[in-house]
Amino acid sequence: KAYNVTPDSSIELYQLAQLVLKVAGKNLPIVVVREDMGLEYSGDNSRLRQEIPGLAFTPIEQAVKELYDWYLSNKHMINKEFLTIDK
């Protein structure tokens, strides 16, 4: 079976950017190119929850902190050219 795993609650991209800045301790501008909503990405975890009772997701604040810390510790492994491919 395949699962589209999603958080139980949504967060807007702008809010996520604000959270990243908070975790990073940075005061940088967040540039919004288009203010209208793009495609909505959502899902339903009910089938997954039936198969894994007690399933718990990492709170978004903790997940962003852990991911930020990992990237900070592994800067030497990041190829900056790959980050500009979609530009």
Terminal CA distance: 35 Å
Low-confidence stretches: none
Number of strand segments: 0
Order of helices and strands: HHH
Helix percent reads 25-40%
Outline the biggest β-sheet: none
Number of helices: 3
- Backbone structural class: mainly alpha
Rg = 16 Å
Principal-axes geometry comes out as: extended
Residues in β-strands, percent: under 5%
Mean pLDDT: 88
Q: What does it look like?
A:
The chain is mainly alpha-helical and 87 residues long. Helix content is 37%, strand content 0%. Helix 1 (13-24) packs across helix 3. The longest helix is centred in the C-terminal third of the chain and has 14 residues, at 60-73. The N and C termini lie far apart (35 Å).
Give a short overview:
The protein has 87 residues and is an all-alpha fold.
Write the layout of secondary structure elements.
Blueprint: H1 13-24, H2 46-51, H3 60-73
Helix pairs in contact: 1-3
Using brief descriptors, characterize the structure shown.
single chain; 87 residues; mainly alpha; 0% strand
